[in-house]
Amino acid sequence: QVAMEESGGGLVQAGGSLTLSCVAAAHTWAIGWFRQRPGQFREPIASIRLDDHLIYYHDSVKGRFAISGDNAKNTVTLQMDNLNAEDTAVYYCVTLLSWPNTPFDYWGRGTRVTVST
Fold first, then answer.
1. 89-98 and 102-103 beta bridge pairing
2. CA-based diameter of the chain, in Å?
3. Distance between alpha carbon 95 and the CA centroid of its chain, in Å?
4. CB 2 within 8 A of CB 75
5. Which of 87, 89, 92, 97 sits 20 to 30 Å CA-CA off 39?
6. Residue 90 to residues 45, 49, 50: CA-CA distances in angstroms?
7. Residue-wise pLDDT tens digits, 9-30
8. d(CA 76, CA 36)
């Protein structure tokens, strides 16, 4: 497991954008973004393999979210556009156990995103 630190969450109006950042404490092969909406289980939304930048998106965010990564800096960014109320959640990044969205069970504090309507 690798410790992660998420940042960039906040309050945004529906239709707006936010950029989330994730910094890994050490090099890792792949990082996934997950979110936990109120009253729901944590779900995968996007992943990136840092050596070849292979990317996975959950259907709910395709066309609205974009994940990118910097292998040298152990950082991953999640650009979120056209946000809606369903995107309100705590967002986490985590090292993957297997591709495309099986995480190591080692979670950080996350960063909260609230979308107002």
1. antiparallel
2. 39
3. 11
4. no
5. 97
6. 12, 22, 23
7. 999 999 999 999 999 999 999 9
8. 19
